[in-house]
Structure formats: structure tokens, C-alpha cells
Amino acid sequence: MNPSDDADPGMSPSTPRNTLFASLWAVVAAFGTYFCMYGFRKPYTAGSYETLATLGGFDLKTLLVISQVGGYMVSKFLGIKFISELPPARRAVGILFLIGWAELALFGFALTPAPWGFIFLFLNGLPLGMVFGLVLGFLEGRRHTEALAAGLCASFILADGVMKSIGAALLNLGVSEHWMPAAAGACFFLPTLIFVGMLTRIAPPDSHDVAARSRRGTLNRHERWNLFTKYALGLVFLIIAYLLVTILRSIRADFQPQILKGLGVEYDAGLFTRVELWVGGAVLMVNGALVAITNNRSAFFASLGICIAGFFILSGSLLGLQIGLLSPVPFVVLCGLGLYFPYAAIHTTVFERLLAATKDKGTSSYLLQLADSFGYLGYIAVLVGNLILKRSVRGPTTADDAAFARFFIETCWVVSVLGLLFLMGATWFFLSKVKRPAVSPPALTPELLTASA
User: Fold this and answer.
1) pTM (2 decimals)?
2) Are 95 and 134 a contacting pair, CB within 8 Å?
């Protein structure tokens, strides 16, 4: 039986019980699929790789991060075309193919002597950058898309910490740093099959969804270009703000152990999970609540307001740390909130409600893939520049960790100021482009004529 089937003759498509069950099914399927994907992407970051060979005098950990994120960034650019044009019926097979490719690359990493395994981490990241867009394609264009997508976003917030904890636990069990990523991925292959199977049972948007939002479908190159050029300035402002958030969010995610060490924190493997549980819970509630706003224009600008609020939280956390009101762990939590509020809002609501308010032909997965491409391009530029300037983490000394923590805090200040400016510019642009819906006068029915008489 299809759990999301709206054609049950005993229920209308808007029956609350049916809609609730279908929504819960979709959230679990999307959350589980993307959470499991992180099992093939992030556990390696729990390793320090300090005792392994270096290349050209650069530390291996940073080289590995650059390699994998480089593949992930290339995947985002390829996904602009691939995700926009892939028929919905092939999304599930596409997800399994991409994740299978990533796991094979992790086995290649395990079997290749250091430091040359970085080539296989590039190949590991190369398919994974398209998975989010494929999963989002199952959720967008619905009356409850914000709530569904918020659940999806909670998966990568929580998974970031959980996968580092799992990687650290495997290392503590004696698994080598070379084999740990492949071992972690193998643990998630069967759950991935189950959750992707659940995705295939999600019914497409019904007529009520299409009326409330807009029809979504495949986009060719001409249609993608038309959508972008219509809102070019506003989208550029949004993409730059998103790029800044992506850079800082990725640094925080990939180097959180070094940041905590640099701030003087002695941590256990479970701290990463506890930190992201707090962040994920708050982000899920705030962004998911936007589903209660039925007016698409109002919800769109409310989501931009959440993005702006995130940068104020980030600035406040920095100020609190520097004047001594916050200790390092609460700072890392509030910093995560400040970054994930705009990051999740763009994933869940900003592009979704822009299309719903304007009724333009497009998909939020295309716009998000476009933003992600430049976001990860910016992150690669920062990592490479940081490596060249020898300001990244260089080894086991406390001084190096402290220097990287200072670099992270400095970057936070730059991002908080510039992000606010670009988001305010985007808000100003869209205020003139996203018009209030015209209110049509009521039809002159016999009842109205009699009442007026």
C-alpha cells in the first residue's frame, strides 16, 4: 500500500489524518536518506592524520578536506544541469548510484598509501554533491514543504556531529584512520536502501499543493537562464550571503575538533553530537514554523528575516566570547545557530516561497544547487588560500590549534558583517519584484445583488 496515496476513496486529499501520515512518512524518508549519505561523507573528519605522510610539506588533514570538498563542489556545478533535467522517476536510482560510487571511492582511499588517498576522497565527494537536490525534489512544491524540508535540513545538522562521533568511536575501537571512512560507510548502506525505498512511495504534489505553491517539473537550459536573469541582482546578493555562510559553516563542521582544542576544550566523542542536537532542534522548530504562514509573499520575507536574525546571533556569540560572557562550548552552539538559521532557511523556504509567490516556472532544487555551487567554490578558495598562507592546522601542537581558532573567530566577524549587508540588499531588491497578490472583486452573484439592495 502506498502510504501517501491521496486516491483513497474513503478520504479526500485534504483529510488531516491522511496528510499527517503522508508528511511524517516523507520527513522520515528524506531525513533518513540524507542522514545516511553523511555516513559516506563526514566520518573521515574525525581523524587527525597527523602521523601519516604529508605532500609538499602541507598537513594531510587539510589536503584531504580540500580534495573531498573539491569533488563536492564540482558535483554541485554538474548537478545544476543533472538535477534540473532528471525525470522524477529516476531520482531514487540516481541517489543509490551516487552513494554506491562514493563508498567504492572510500575503499580506494583505504587501499592507497598516504598521501595519495586524497585522489579517492576527491572521487568520494564528486557524486555526493547532487544527493540533496535529488532528495529535495521529492519534497518541494507542497503545502507543507517548509516542514518537510526542515526535517531534511535537521538531518545534515545532526549528522555532522553524529558522523564525527561515529568516526571517533571507530578509531577508539582500533580501526585505522585509512579504513575508518569505508567502515563507517558500510554501516549505512542497508539503511540507505530502506530510506530510498521509502522515498519512492511518496506521492507527487496533488492539485491543492499546485494551487497553493506552483507546478514543478524539469527545466532545460533556456528555462533555467530565464529564471535566473529575471531576478539576477537579488539572486546574486542571496548567493553571496549563502556563499559566506557556507564557507564558515563548512570550516566549523570540518575543523570543529581543532577549533575546540584551540579554545581550550577537552572533549569526548559524544560532544559533537550533543552540540548539533541543540542546534538542529532550534533550527528545525524556527524554519519549520514558516509552514504556518499561508501567504507566500509574507513567508518569503519572513524567511529572509530569519536569515538576518542568524547573522545577529552570530555577532552576539562572538561578542559574548570575547568579553567573557560565553564559554567555548556555548559559543560553538550559538555560532552554529547563527550559521544554520540562514543556511536552513535558504534550503527550506527562501527559494520555495519565491517560486510560489511569483508562479514562475522553476524548481527550488535548481536554485539551491546554483547557490551551493558557488558556496562550495568559495569554501575551496578559502581552504587553499589558508593552506598557502600556512594559517591552517599544521600538526599536533596546541599553538597551531589556537592559531586556527583565532582565524575562525576573525572569519566569523567578517562573515557576520558582510552577510548582513548582502541580505539587506537582497531584501530591498525583492520588495520591488515580489508583488502583493491582486485582490479580485467578488463576483456579482444574485445573493450579493439582493444584499446590496
Assistant:
1) 0.77
2) yes
